Amino acid sequence: MTASAEALHSIPATPDRLETRLGTLEFEDGVPSRETSERVHDHLDFTHALNVFLNGFPGASTQALLNGLHEVGAEDNSILIFSELMDSNSLFLTANADTVYFIGIVDLTTGPMVIETPPQALALFDDMWFQWIVDFGLPGPDRGEGGHFLLVPPGYDGSLPDSGYHVRHSRTTRALLLGRSFINENPGQDPAPTVEVIKSTLKLYPYAQGGFGTSIGTLLEGHVHPDPPVDIPETTFIEGTGKAFNTIPPSDFGFFELLNELVQAEPADSNTNIELMGDLAAIGIVKGKPFNPDERMRGILEDAAAVGSAASRALVFDARESEGFGYYDDGSAWGIPLWVGGYSFETPPPLVTK
């Protein structure tokens, strides 16, 4: 079968010049000039970098939290606690000043970890990409009673208990513990009783195979070789109230350096967002490879971080009407702080009535 002359002539040819938001793009017989190619490649690099800033912010935020905790001496498996509440000396995203925060990084590099959680908390475990693992406290399976949580690292092939633990698997080799406990029922809203509950109940220690949670019947099967009992260590609490430190990612080239730290520290498949990992690779952030952008690329990354910061603020403070965040219909700045479609953007949003 051959195409008709009419059909051939209907195929649009690439013009010699295109006027675009990138400027004038020039072609010869459809082949871009060197200047046009460079301009387009710069734009593609910028697009990848902008996507990384907007979609990679959760991971950068968790890495910034880890770095901030280490800065004030809260090493992994210790807990930063704000016994006298949080103030403006420490920089956090979305924190408030009327609950007792306790925050830590759980190190899973040597195996599963047990975390005994305090009662009446509003808290969670996330992995280092800020991907949810499990809630604990009031919204969790312990329903505010406190419980034994067992976090399992990626690739673990050892035995797990028959019962007695809330077992969850992390996609990363470290996990974020983020909790807050309330003071509104304390006399004079004194945080001290709440702090005492946290300090007396929160414990972190390695899991011992074949111990608590494993039945004698399971042991008699011969597949589980019991570990020596674990001496539960005293939890290290680092005071955070009044300390000046930062846990917020930068809005410049340092943002991408922060994400590179995370990519190098965690398994290559730890993030379920394949598109994000592709964008990271496109700008030179790849597991096991050095991140050394040249002067051209560094300038593009600086620009993308600036635009990304502006874009995120525009999306939050001046969302389009079609986004559905507006509380009023008259252009008011009042908005509904609930993601349309839920955190996964899949389920119908809750109805908020006026």
Question: Which helices and strands, and how do they pair?
Answer:
Blueprint: H1 5-10, E1 17-20, E2 23-28, E3 31-32, H2 34-55, H3 57-71, E4 79-81, E5 90-91, E6 99-107, E7 113-116, E8 121-127, E9 132-137, E10 148-152, E11 166-169, E12 174-182, H4 192-201, E13 203-206, H5 216-220, E14 237-239, E15 245-246, H6 253-265, H7 274-282, H8 295-317
Parallel strand pairs: 4-14, 5-15, 10-11
Antiparallel strand pairs: 1-2, 2-3, 4-6, 6-12, 7-10, 7-13, 8-9, 8-12
Helix pairs in contact: 2-7, 2-8, 3-6
Question: Could you please describe the fold and organization of this structure?
Answer:
The chain is α+β, with helices and mostly antiparallel strands. The protein has three domains: 14-55 and 250-318, VPA0735-like fold, CATH 1.10.3360; 68-246, Sandwich (Immunoglobulin-like); 322-354, no CATH class. The chain is built from eight helices and 15 strands. It has helices spanning 5-10, 34-55, 57-71, 192-201, 216-220, 253-265, 274-282, 295-317; strands at residues 17-20, 23-28, 31-32, 79-81, 90-91, 99-107, 113-116, 121-127, 132-137, 148-152, 166-169, 174-182, 203-206, 237-239, 245-246. The strands form four sheets. Strands 9-8-12-6-4-14 form a six-stranded mixed β-sheet, with helices on both faces. Helix 2 (34-55) crosses helix 7, helix 2 (34-55) crosses helix 8 (295-317) and helix 3 (57-71) crosses helix 6 (253-265).
